[in-house]
Design goal:
The complex is a heterodimer of chains A (105) and B (302).
Chain A (H helix, E strand, L loop, with lengths): L7 H9 L5 E2 H11 L8 H14 L2 E4 L9 E4 L1 H25 L4
Antiparallel strand pairs in A: 1-3, 2-3
Helix pairs in contact in A: 1-2
Chain B lengths: L3 E5 L7 H13 L2 E5 L4 E6 L5 E7 L6 H10 L3 E5 L4 E7 L15 H35 L3 H25 L1 H4 L5 H22 L3 E8 L7 E7 L3 E21 L4 E19 L2 E9 L8 E8 L1
Antiparallel strand pairs in B: 1-3, 2-3, 4-6, 5-6, 7-12, 8-11, 9-10, 9-11, 9-12
Helix pairs in contact in B: 3-4, 4-6
The chains are: A mainly alpha (105), B alpha+beta (302).
């Protein structure tokens, strides 16, 4: 039995940090963009998810630039592994669905 | 100084969405929240803006600066927090933005996490309340009074309401819309407590006693006691006599309300329900008692 699947919010937060550190607002905007406007991460969800992932050691907080109070988040090596595993799992699921359903829609 | 309005409303925790909806409606009507509270909220008049509000429950914020910053990043302005872990935020309303912009919890997991934080507290409070009910119930059985019965009922109602609420906040889809009766439930609980307290305060302790020798030609020993409220009263009797005595409690119409008797070292108690009024306690020696037989009697009523 592998790790539990990530929620959409957790997945997108990790995905948004893959290319480099970002702050909460940046993650929220990028998530909207990547999900074609389907996934919006509200402030309460963002605080809880980033806090939980920092405790798990998947991401870490960095102080923002001096003029900017916003805190940056950065993916850790563990977080990167979690993201890649989840991407694999999702690819596998999508491939299984393709095998059966194909391009019905 | 702008006009202020105070609103005294208590929302149960599991009706926090209703509170948000009411705050939004008040903002649309020109009343902006200055300070939110569990029992009292203060609003100021400003018809030039419209806000949308968010309520978060988090009684253990490990990084307050990061918490506030995460909300500020998305345009949420902190209004205030309450002693028990509720945080009020507001954001200027822009009708062109989608409704998701005004949601702070946007996935099922985080909604459940927030609900879970309160429901853990709710289950603990409900369990404590039921334990208090059990203790009160036992006391009411041992020493019945309107006060103890009302307090037991109020505790039971409060405990059941809190436990139901703790369940409802975790199962909003099953629980459906908030029931208006919950507000009535709280009103009933507080009325029961207030009434119980009134009964408790207005009761008073009465006592009397005498050392009394039997004289067949003299009237029996009597004591007038009163019942200030319709309630259960317990009469504790302590007597020491060589003869058999009969103790009766009669009302003003002469109807016997309670009867007890015994001899020797007598210690007994009698619980009776009395309507308000004066009552006469009579101690009567048995007819075959030797004249001059003495006895000591003491009565305490509470």
């Amino acid at each position: 039995m592998g790790a539990e699947p990530l929620t959409e919010s957790y997945f997108y937060i990790l995905l948004c940090l893959y290319d480099g550190p970002s702050h909460g607002y940046g993650i929220m905007r990028r998530t909207l963009e990547l999900s074609d406007g389907h996934v919006h991460i509200g402030s309460g969800t963002m605080y809880g998810a980033t806090g939980s992932m920092m405790k798990k050691g998947w991401i870490q907080g960095l102080p923002g630039p001096d003029a900017d109070r916003r805190r940056l988040y950065e993916l850790t090596e563990t977080g990167r592994e979690v993201l890649l595993d989840e991407a694999d799992r999702l690819r596998h699921l999508a491939a299984a669905a393709d095998n059966i359903i194909g391009g019905e829609r | 100084m702008s006009k202020l309005k105070r609103r005294y409303v208590m929302y149960p925790a599991w009706e926090y969405k209703q509170e948000v909806a009411d705050l939004n409606a008040l903002s649309d009507a020109g009343w902006q929240l200055k300070k939110g509270g569990c029992f009292r909220s203060v609003f100021y008049r400003d018809e030039t803006v419209r806000y949308r509000y968010a309520l978060d429950y988090n009684n253990h914020i490990d990084d307050p600066a990061r918490y506030r910053d995460t909300f500020a990043e998305q345009g949420w302005e902190f209004v205030n927090d309450t002693f028990n872990g509720w945080h009020f935020f507001r954001k200027r309303y822009d009708p062109s933005l989608p409704e998701e912009e005004y949601e702070i919890y946007t996935d099922e997991q985080s909604v459940q996490d927030m609900a879970g934080r309160w429901s853990r507290l709710g289950y603990a409070l409900g369990a404590v309340e039921l334990a208090v009910t059990a203790v009160n119930g036992l006391m009411a059985l041992r020493h019945p009074s309107v006060f103890s019965i009302l307090v037991t009922l109020a505790c039971l109602m409060l405990g059941v309401t809190i436990l139901t609420g703790a369940w409802r906040i975790r199962h909003p889809h099953v629980a459906g819309k908030p029931r208006k009766s919950l507000g009535w439930c709280f009103a009933t609980v507080f009325s029961l407590l207030a009434l119980g307290l009134l009964f408790g305060v207005l009761r008073y302790y009465q006592s009397s006693g005498a050392e009394y020798a039997y004289d067949p030609s003299a009237p029996p020993w009597t004591w007038e006691m009163s019942a200030p409220l319709p309630d259960f009263y317990t009469m504790h009797v302590e007597a020491d006599t060589d003869a058999f005595v009969e103790i009766t409690v009669t009302n003003k119409k002469g109807e016997v309300v309670s009867e007890m008797g015994g001899g020797g070292d007598l210690r007994t108690k009698e619980t009776m329900f009395l309507w308000p009024g004066k009552y006469e306690v009579t101690v009567q020696y048995a007819p075959d008692t030797e004249p001059g037989t003495t006895g000591y009697f003491r009565f305490e009523v509470d």
